[in-house]
Amino acid sequence: MRDRNQELDAVIREMEMELSKERAELGQKRMRLERVRMEVKGDTERLQRELAVRDSMAPVQKLRDELNGKQPPAPQSDKPLNDRLRGIRNQLSDTPTAAS
């Protein structure tokens, strides 16, 4: 009976050690998961901020692309505005200078 109790005590100690190792491993995995979660959260917030900036800068980028000739001219809905700008440019270039 005493031998059986000693065997059971040894098995219990062994199982407790194994359980302790598993708990430590789970703790490490939990910490790693939390770090990854925080990284993903930070990346998501950064991407949302960048998207907001890109959206607000879209008209500027569109104009820059048009000026650099990377994009075709604006669609027909902007034609009156373009005509008006062209007219103003023509007026400025046709205006005699004070030195003339």
What topology does this entry show?
Layout: H1 2-67, H2 79-94
Task: Please provide a written account of the structure.
With 100 residues, the chain is an all-alpha fold. It is built from 2 helices and no strands. It has helices at residues 2-67, 79-94.
Structural class: mainly alpha
Order of helices and strands: HH
**Which word captures the global form?**
rod-shaped
Proportion of strand residues? under 5%
Note the gap between the termini. 123 Å
- The Cα radius of gyration reads 36 Å
* Percent range of helical residues: over 70%
What is the average of the pLDDT values? Answer: 86
Main sheet characteristics: none
Instruction: Please count the beta strands (DSSP E, at least 2 residues each).
Output: 0
With helices defined by DSSP (H or I, 4 residues minimum), what is the helix count?
A: 2
Give the count of structural domains.
1
Parts with pLDDT < 50 across at least 5 consecutive residues: none
Summarize, please:
This protein is mostly helical and 100 residues long. It contains 2 helices and no strands. It has helices at 2-67, 79-94.
Feature tags:
mainly alpha, 100 residues, single chain
